[in-house]
Amino acid sequence: MKALVWHGKEDIRCDTVPDPTIEDATDAIIKVTSCAICGSDLHLFHNFMPGMRKGDVMGHEHMGVVVEVGSAVKKLRIGERVVIPFTIICGECEQCRRGFYSVCERTNRNRKLGDTVFGHSTAGLFGYTALTGGYAGGQAEYLRVPFADATHIKVPDNDLTDEQLLFLGDIFPTGWQAAVQCDIQPTDTVAVWGCGPVAQFAIRSALLLGAKQVIAIDNLPDRLSMARAGGAITINFDEESVLDRLQELTQGKGPEKCIDAVGMEAHAARSLDSMLDKAKQMVMLGTDRPHVLREMMYVCRPAGVLSVPGVYGGFLDKIPFGAAMNKGLTIRMGQTHVNRWTPDLLRRIETRQIDPSFVVTHNVPLEQGPQMYKTFRDKSDGCIKVVLKPNGNGRH
Ligand SMILES: NC(=O)c1ccc[n+]([C@@H]2O[C@H](COP(=O)([O-])OP(=O)(O)OC[C@H]3O[C@@H](n4cnc5c(N)ncnc54)[C@H](O)[C@@H]3O)[C@@H](O)[C@H]2O)c1
Ligand SMILES: [Zn+2]
Ligand SMILES: [Zn+2]
Fold it and tell me: How far apart are CA 326 and CA 109, in angstroms?
């Protein structure tokens, strides 16, 4: 089959690889009808996350049709339409039973590695390094789904398009969880750093959850205008001081809730701390560029919440922890517990409360994937979200 394969830093190719097969009785195979490129894939593209191996199949946002099931699979049938969450979950361990799916205790088959690097290993993830199990991803014609009885979201086979449903597997629940973690009150200002796909869902989720106002920050005009269309007030960090504007818009109080939808690859051309982060990352003296976290700790209203869906990989430098501690800030973060939110979010899609397809700017065949990684990385051609079609129906 065709698949997007990692060959090294900034080197992803559309190769022919063996079709996946049922390896365990609990596996299913799906034929992928749509998949997408996520901001988290860019961290792998740039080789900022440890544990990628040459030959790894990329991708963790994917949906399709079940074409094969292992003998122990009870809840899926051939022909069913499913979105597959990026987190591989058993549904039975203590963490899964508590709804903390992204830290499932059974699905990471490289537990030792995870235990060594993070203290405790976390759930297996599709297409996301040896650290999270080294499972093949779904930017491919077919995907093997381990622990298939739990690792799926059944979606109706009706007139809802793939583009309306696909994001249930990652960025929609990620934006939603980011907002839920803020414990939003009707008097709250929620500031969202970034206007990428995750942020777009965080903005709309914060408003659905009743925030008084949402302020979104980025420097890319197309993304800022999509944020405004979603109901946010925007700040272009190239043109205005983020801290001054946030103070102004909150009458000097600071936003009660701050969401970091940027993560480890923040830019801020004119800021000294950000230049230092970049230099250190280039010579391998630092792993992450936490400019956004610093800004959030500084500007957040005392007793506020910092919610961090943005991905970080290692050790963060020059974090004003004293400010965070003395201001009594709560910090909540994590990879998303996807299946915890999807029944509610699917209902919101079905009742037309939200149509997630608004975020798609590019819809192309899988073969154009390698080029699309660059387009998405460079944010060129107005690119906000790329959907890839491995089995036909691509349209631009
Ligand atoms: N927690 C999870 O489960 C989960 C799931 C999906 C994605 N993510 C993470 O969420 C983050 C965003 O993902 P995405 O797909 O939207 O990525 P993206 O790269 O498309 O978006 C990031 C945006 O941040 C903006 N940005 C950069 N520096 C900034 C700054 N200093 N201030 C404000 N904005 C700035 C960029 O211009 C860009 O628009 C990534 O770190 C990704 O890994 C986490
Ligand atoms: Zn993702
Ligand atoms: Zn589990």
Answer: 40
Six-digit token string for 78: 């051939």
267 — pLDDT class (breaks 50, 70, 90): confident
Backbone angles phi, psi at 297, to 5 degrees: -65, -35
- Max Cα distance, the chain (Å): 62
- Check: CB of residue 137 under 8 Å from CB of residue 127: yes
Which atom of ligand 1 is nearest the CA belonging to 200? 16
For the chain, domains (ranges, CATH) are 2-170+336-389 (3.90.180.10), 173-333 (3.40.50.720)
pLDDT score of 254: 98
Residue nearest to atom 15 of ligand 1 (CA): 39
Please report how the helices 171-180 and 197-208 are oriented relative to each other, as an axis angle in degrees rounded to 10.
50
Residue 269: its pLDDT value, please?
63
How remote is the CA of residue 220 from the centroid of ligand 1, in Å? 12
331-352 burial string, b = 16+ CB within 10 Å, else e?
Answer: bebbbbbbbbbbeebbebbeee
